[in-house]
Amino acid sequence: MSFSSLGLSAELLRAVSDQGYAEPTPVQSRAIPVVLSGRDLMAAAQTGTGKTAGFTLPLLQHLQSNPAMAARRKPVRVLVLTPTRELAAQVGESVQTYGKYLPFTTAVIFGGVNINPQMDKLHRGVDIVVATPGRLLDHVQQKTIDLSKVEILVLDEGDRMLDMGFIRDIRRILGLLPHRRQNLLFSATFSEDIRQLAAGLLKNPETIDVAPRNSTVELITQRVHPVDKGHKRELLAHLIKSGDWRQVLVFTRTKHGANRLCEQLQKDGIQSAAIHGNKTQSARTRALADFKQGRVRVLVATDIAARGLDIDQLPHVVNFDLPNVPEDYVHRIGRTGRAGSTGEAISLVSPDERGLLKDIERLLRQELPRAAVNDFKPDPHARPEPADRPAHGARHSHRQESGGWHSRPGSRGHRPRSATSRNAGR
Ligand code: AMP
Asked: What is the pLDDT of residues 285-331, one digit of tens each?
């Protein structure tokens, strides 16, 4: 399949070819025709699948094929909602990239930055708005945006929006949109919550699921290094230095943990930056730019801050702490081995995290290879230290006591998505 057979205009094809893409990814070849047909869409696709171009290209095509009615001020015709500022910024960049030969204007709207430039931009009139829900509603309240002419609504990373508690904001925003519109819902998972949201939002949708999670996972070499909690930082520094890793994304469970690790690595002489929700937008943008340009070797991130970071071909991802929610492991390691390249995902697992490791292995339906690193083997006689996580993490304690290093089959107890994933990085 080639891009030219998808029904995209010459301007869009030229922009795609400038990016050097040889052919559409599976999500693109399936989603683009559906969006162009005007139907609602529910797509299971996570970051790394090319989903952003999967909705950006056809929505630009829609704008091009259906000129707006003449009006005093340009109406907002496309609204893309994203859970995080980073993702909004990246979707905004994609719209610029793919729309560079087209005349459409875009505003990217998120909190944590001055609202006035956003107001000015909206006042001048834009075709496309990419926004996080909270700041969008601020604009609604200030009457600086009119959503009554929206033709296409995109909810990107829908599952993450629900995790982050945006459901009420989303419902308020839906109430401001015209009844007749096209809706596109992208989500990494089809949880019950997402299905419920979809049922109220989508009309007779086409459903595509091009991202059986393991297809991403298969490209990634995964390894577990058992290590005592107190030696994780030294082991990480050793791995980075001995492997001469130049670009590594490290996940911690908490913002505090991210800051602390970042400071310690700096002391070890490894240039590092932390990225999480307590950082200002400009600090996050700077950290990401420094990382991409190689000025910083290690980016330490919390789960939510890392969602949607557009970093190509990341060779190494390290789980300094395992996530409380097994699905987050898949999101994390999906940051490597992207768009066909292979990558390595390493988890530093202390004895208190064995229960979390088993949950992850159950989700993946595979046992991850363990490899103790000489000089960092965990002390078999040591009492497990308490995990570095908020108090509710204690729900794992019963498993930690009985757990050994090897996974055993067992039923996966139902756990609600944890508050940690909601709070981390906000
Ligand atoms: P996304 O899943 O939208 O975050 O995209 C993941 C990465 O894949 C981005 O860095 C894109 O630049 C890249 N990408 C998107 N479409 C293609 C394609 N057709 N061929 C190769 N890379 C692509």
From this structure: 888 889 888 899 999 998 877 765 666 667 899 999 999 888 788 87
Q: Which of 180, 209, 238 is the last residue of a domain?
A: 209
* Beta strands per DSSP E along 272-342: 272-275, 298-301, 316-319
Residue 345 alpha carbon to ligand 1 centre in Å? 20
Q: Which domain holds residue 173?
A: 3-209
Residue 42 belongs to domain with CATH number: 3.40.50.300
Residues 186 and 225 in one domain: no
pTM of the prediction?
0.59
Ligand 1 binding site (Cβ under 6 Å of any ligand atom): 21, 24-25, 28, 47-53, 310, 312, 338-339
User: What is the C-alpha separation between 162 and 41, in angstroms, rounded?
Assistant: 18
Min mean pLDDT across 38-42, 69-73, 87-91, 199-203 is at 69-73
In terms of domains, do 175 and 36 share one? Answer: yes
Q: Read off the pLDDT of residues 376-415 as tens digits, 9 standing for 90 and up.
A: 988 877 665 554 444 333 333 333 323 334 433 333 333 3
Count: domains in the chain: 2
Which of 5, 17, 21, 93 is the pocket-test mutation for ligand 1 (most atoms within 8 Å of CB)? Answer: 21
Question: Residue 371's CB: how many other CB atoms inside 10 A?
Answer: 10
Residue 14 in tokens: 């030229």
Same domain, 253 and 317: yes
Please identify, by atom number, the ligand 1 atom nearest to the C-alpha of residue 24.
19
Contacts of 234 (CB under 8 A, 6+ apart): 376
